Please model this.
Amino acid sequence: MKILITGGAGFIGSHLSERLLNEGHEVIVLDNYFTGQKKNIHHLMDNHNFEIIRHDVTMPFFIEVDQIYNLACPASPIHYQHNAIKTVKTSVMGAINMLGLAKRINARILQASTSEVYGDPDVHPQVESYWGHVNPIGIRACYDEGKRCAETLFVNYHRQNNVKIKIIRIFNTYGPRMHPNDGRVVSNFIVQALQGRNITIYGDGSQTRSFQYVDDLLEGMVRMMNSREDFLGPVNIGNPVEFTIKELAEKVIELTGSNSKIVYEPLPQDDPLQRQPDISLAKRELDWEPKVPLNDGLIKTIEYFKSVI
Ligand code: NAD
Ligand code: UDP
Model:
């Protein structure tokens, strides 16, 4: 198949490009390099089935493809808050442009939505039927509400125009090729530990996240794209094993053998206190569940960061 990936020079998109090329597909990436890097896809450049185009998804784009993975959007709070208006535009106008394209060429399109649509959840673990608890005027809203609106656009392009849509809600994902200055917790802690700097826990470290290794996400993502036509989602794709941020810091220190000390900094506004996916739907519909335990995934990610910093 001919497959378009928006945001394909980023962390997840570069792994997805590699996987789809290995499966024998032709892959075209659109990226404006806001948080993506050429070096993430450098090793794919010689593959005659791979092509990358510098393009901003807030502008229309025309091409003939069979499938579209819509991943373009900064994912780290530091980056998505850097230009909040642009983040909303990327999610909303990017979705409109890609859905318009999918409609025109009759392609199947998958949206990379997020656990952030649940906000600071008061239902735990989070199940897809939960509508969420998002502050629409808070500092995370540009990302959360942008992604919520994108979901709305996806379902309405399906209802009104029969576009073949798929929505996955991705929970915290980590692995090689995260940007060293990405600002997300796994990359921050590993880089700090490897450089012997203080490990910065925001708040008291009792907030929780459930961390998924990137290979597990890719498997769920590809299964969702190719699932039967009437299964649209949204479906949670995440690892349900939940850790406190303090436990994560201690694990990173142990696995790196670092002498770094833990320091505590203020918790950012609207930082969700707990997050854990209910993955019953993905298990049932996609026969999918994550396989990589945190320890194994962290070891691979630490090896990667050792090679780049
Ligand atoms: P990333 O920041 O590494 O990748 C995002 C990519 O999108 C980058 O290559 C960036 O340059 C590109 N991009 C941003 N704005 C663009 C625009 N206007 N036009 C074209 N390209 C643009 O982040 P990631 O972790 O790889 O996330 C990929 C997708 O998965 C995002 O949509 C994100 O919201 C979603 N997601 C990720 C996670 C996670 O834990 N990593 C969790 C939930 C959802
Ligand atoms: N966090 C932290 N130290 C850091 C970076 C993040 O304690 O250096 C915390 C952050 O406040 C949040 C959790 O780790 O509670 C996960 O943050 P991340 O930005 O990775 O993802 P998100 O909050 O979007 O789930």
User: Anything to note?
Assistant: The domain at 2-174+212-239+276-290 is CATH 3.40.50.720 (Rossmann fold). The chain has a mean pLDDT of 97. Residues 76-77, 172, 184-185, 188, 200-202, 207, 209, 245, 267-268, 271 surround uridine-5'-diphosphate (ligand 2) (CB under 6 Å).
